[in-house]
Target: Helix-turn-helix transcriptional regulator
Amino acid sequence: MIENAIAQRIQTLLDASGMNLAEAARAAGIPYHTINNLWRRPSAKLSADNADRLAGILGTTSRFILFGEAPAPADRRSAVVAMYDEFDDETRRKLEDYALFLASRRFQSGG
Model:
């Protein structure tokens, strides 16, 4: 079990993205041991700069990573678009199909 709350949030984002910690650290330009320290020490912290770099890679905000604050609606949209851009073609197709399905249901219900 991950004891550090920041590490828990990062792990959730990693699981959703399909990346592992080393890949995310490399993509964000952060030394692996800096991020891995969060998994080893419950009291470890992450700098705002590193949180911002990770947020960009993982399609969220640094405030979510550091404090668990849900992104504002505009930030959520940007985060979803950023995640979409990272998905493979098959996953994108499934998301597009689901969005069309939801839109058709909304149209059918008059909403």
